[in-house]
Automatic annotation (TrEMBL):
It holds the Pfam family Cyt_bd_oxida_II. Belongs to the cytochrome ubiquinol oxidase subunit 2 family. InterPro entries: Cyt-d_oxidase_su2 (IPR003317). This is Cytochrome d ubiquinol oxidase subunit II. The chain crosses the membrane at residues 6-31, 78-103, 115-139, 159-180, 200-218, 233-252, 259-279, 299-323. It is found in: Cell membrane. It is a multi-pass membrane protein. It comes from Nocardioides guangzhouensis. Its main location: membrane. The lineage of its organism: Bacteria, Bacillati, Actinomycetota, Actinomycetes, Propionibacteriales.
Length: 342
């Protein structure tokens, strides 16, 4: 039963990376879009694309926390006691990002919009970096078992965490750019389509560089993870690499539909590959999945709740995404119009 729950947890993390990660990546492109006039059209497309779904995508993160706390309390305690600094920064960043995104659409002053936009964009980079740093601290064995606190600095300021943080930022930016190419095509804007297509290629190159450098870092700093990546997780790594390369080919050929699916699979393969590589440890190499698991009665009840939640919630998610893709949801905020400085 503990294995079943661990697989569900990994799938939920993957869903958050594919859906929520694209939201964070869109914030990265918001940050780098340029000044108010130069970046106006890209930012408008970004707002339209993530506006209806960004709140819903965080349900996956809440699900991950609740499942981990319920099913693997010892691991949950150790992770929070050790990595409370980056987790707290990420939590505050998510709140600041959401509030800024909502307020930017509801204020009239250009100065206020710029301030809220800067907060939204900066948080969109800080949050995924911190989450990647948390993953790196866990994967490199810097979180002790037994509900004990590890080093609050070295646990997330270390080579593996830095690489994982940069990888999260670059992968999410790449994924968001692929999605935005599709959004620009649906909006009938060839100029924006080409704008984000170029950023797809740049994001893919940046992510590839981080992956190559990261391979050497992980080999020296997280030996158990490296051994798993080069053995049991190797098929997942190979599949993800092929998906990423195929997505690039389709982007060059301007086939946005297929590229979107393949890019999502490539990002999903990174998360799944990490989980398979460190199996069967939750905290390499000190706490296995079975040792960390709650009593069987708790796990059984949790699985029942997860099944019920899937039956009730997943159809609602699918409906939301379908309506969003068909542009059948109302836009929020004020109508765009020139406003005087205040």
């Amino acid at each position: 039963m503990s294995t079943t729950v661990a697989v569900v947890l990994l799938l939920a993390l993957t869903a958050y990376a594919v859906f929520g990660g694209a939201d964070f990546g869109a914030g990265f492109w918001d940050l780098t879009a340029g000044g108010a006039e130069r970046g106006r059209r890209p930012r408008e497309l970004i707002e339209r694309s993530i506006g209806p779904v960004w709140e819903a995508n965080h349900v996956w993160l809440i699900f991950v926390f609740v499942v981990t706390w319920t099913a693997f309390p010892e691991a949950y305690a150790s992770i929070w006691l050790t990595l409370f600094v980056p987790l707290t920064i990420a939590a505050l960043g998510i709140v600041l990002r959401g509030a800024s995104f909502a307020f930017r659409k509801s204020v009239e002053s250009t100065r206020s919009r710029r301030a809220f936009g800067a907060a939204f964009a900066a948080s969109s980079v800080v949050v995924p970096y911190c989450m990647g740093a948390v993953a790196g601290g866990i994967a490199s064995g810097r979180v002790p078992a037994g509900g004990r606190a590890g080093d609050p600095v070295d646990s997330w300021v270390n080579p593996t965490s830095v690489v994982a943080g940069l990888l999260a930022v670059t992968l999410f930016a790449y994924l968001a750019a692929v999605y935005l190419v599709w959004e620009a095509r649906g909006a009938g804007d060839p100029a924006l389509e080409e704008y984000f297509r170029r950023r797809c290629l740049g994001g893919a190159v940046a992510a590839a560089v981080v992956l190559v450098v990261g391979a050497f870092v992980v080999r020296d700093d997280a030996s158990y993870l490296w051994d798993g990546l080069t053995s049991r997780a190797l098929p997942v790594v190979a599949a993800g690499t092929l998906c990423g390369l195929a997505a690039l080919v389709l982007l060059v050929m301007r086939a946005a539909r297929g590229a979107r699916l393949l890019a999502a699979l490539a990002v999903a393969a990174v998360v799944v590959g990490w989980g398979v590589a460190q199996w069967d440890y939750l905290l390499p190499t000190s706490l296995t999945v079975s040792a960390a698991a709650a009593p069987s009665g708790t796990l059984t009840a949790l699985v029942v709740v997860v099944v019920l939640a899937a039956v009730l919630v997943v159809p609602a998610f699918l409906l939301l995404y379908v309506l969003d893709q068909r542009r059948m949801l109302p836009e929020e905020g004020l109508e765009e119009a020139p406003v005087p400085e205040r």
